[in-house]
Amino acid sequence: MSSSERLSVALACAEGTSWPHADWPAPDDSYVGRVWQVDPPYRKLADTPLDVVLLSCVEPAHALPELTGALAGRGVPVIVVSGRRDVETVVEVFRGGAGYLVDGDYCTCMLSSAVMAATVGHTYLSPAACAALREGAREAPTGGDAVERLRALLSPRERQIMELLSTGLGAQEIGLRLRLSEKTVRNNLSNIYAKLDARGSTDAVLRWLGATPVLRF
After folding, report:
1. Model's pTM, two decimal places?
2. H helices within the chain, ranges in order?
3. pLDDT tens-digit map of 18-53
């Protein structure tokens, strides 16, 4: 990816926070070319060309709605970076369609991968955020038989892909794990979304985990 093709990323820092990675992105970052910091109320985001927003905040429940409002329905993907790792917070962020990286639970290489994944519709979760989402699904009163019937709609390969998708991996990483091309994984995901009547990766993961009745948005 040439420098002109690399992504533009806004670093939104909520009140009382600052961007924690002064050395990111590296000059030779494969995915990210331009970053700039924007503070509340994020007015510059309404008309500035950008690919992804990274939101650094203490309380996502307050900061994310403010940021979403400033984006004014532009459809720009958002990834939250926060120290909160409790189930309720992570579930609400994921439910809103944003990725989630827990402080201390990722490296800057993962950060770049998360940004790239967001541009192709993948909702990226760091391992701790993924664990919280799964815990939230286990606590949801959904009925095991219904979930198993839903999963039975998928082929064995599609079930493998969904299991990996629900751990926070993107199409490229799933392909590496299963020795498939990224294109093949994406084709499988399209079939999975159709079978699960899901609107995308977020909705599909919620259905796969059996959390949709509680977490539907």
Report:
1. 0.77
2. 60-71, 87-95, 108-119, 127-139, 144-151, 156-165, 171-178, 182-196, 201-209, 212-215
3. 898 988 999 889 899 999 999 999 988 988 899 999
